[in-house]
Amino acid sequence: MKIKKKRKIMGEKEIKWTLKRIASEIIEEGIENLCIIGIRNRGDVIAERIRDDIEKETGTRLESGMLDITLYRDDLSTIGPRPVIAATEIPCNIDDMRIVLIDDVLYTGRTIRAALDELVDFGRAARIYLAVLIDRGGRELPIHPDFIGKKVEVMQNEHIQVMVKGIDKEDSVWLLEEVK
């Protein structure tokens, strides 16, 4: 099966504005006792940008970290015999902290479930919020984001691809289509 780029959903400017809006919404909830944690491999980049936007707007630099959920996935056996595992970095004690967990795309909810399982190993947070750049629907688990960049209706044969500078050569969001 081949995948082709079908349509650009967001470009660099739209992503920048969207992340600033998410940062403002987080600020409205209050930034006291708050830590920003992104899910590798693109959620962590998005989390750093949101944290930087919050700092620019408030003058407060929040604690931030990143999770590698590889070992917490429920489909680990399908990944292969030697999955690549990156470091999880949680810079603070999360007990009684408010956490904003950030990912690029929310689909089935299984990635978020794995992230929540891993976070529990680090402590008992007072509250965990979920922020996503793209909510594409199609949940298999009862997980709902608190902060949404953009909702995108996606057909069964379509996928979302988020690209971020630092990992990819550009900032963009694409709707991809499977072609037989």
Find the CATH topology: Rossmann fold
The percent range for strand residues is: 25-35%
Supply the CATH architecture: 3-Layer(aba) Sandwich
* Bulk shape: globular
Distance between the termini: 5 Å
- Widest beta sheet: strand line-up: 3-2-4-5-6
Multimeric status of the protein: single chain
Average pLDDT works out at 92
Number of domains: 1
Q: Class in CATH?
A: Alpha Beta
C-alpha-based Rg, rounded:
16 Å
List low-pLDDT spans: none
Number of helices: 4
Largest sheet: 5 strands, parallel
Tell me about this structure.
The chain is of the alpha/beta class and 180 residues long. It has a single domain, classed as Rossmann fold (3-Layer(aba) Sandwich), CATH 3.40.50. The protein is built from 4 helices and 8 strands. The chain has helices at 12-29, 43-58, 76-79, 110-122; strands spanning 2-10, 34-39, 63-67, 98-106, 127-135, 147-151, 158-163, 172-179. Helix 1 crosses helix 2. The longest helix is centred in the N-terminal third of the chain and has 18 residues, at 12-29. The protein is globular and about 50 Å long. The mean pLDDT is 92.
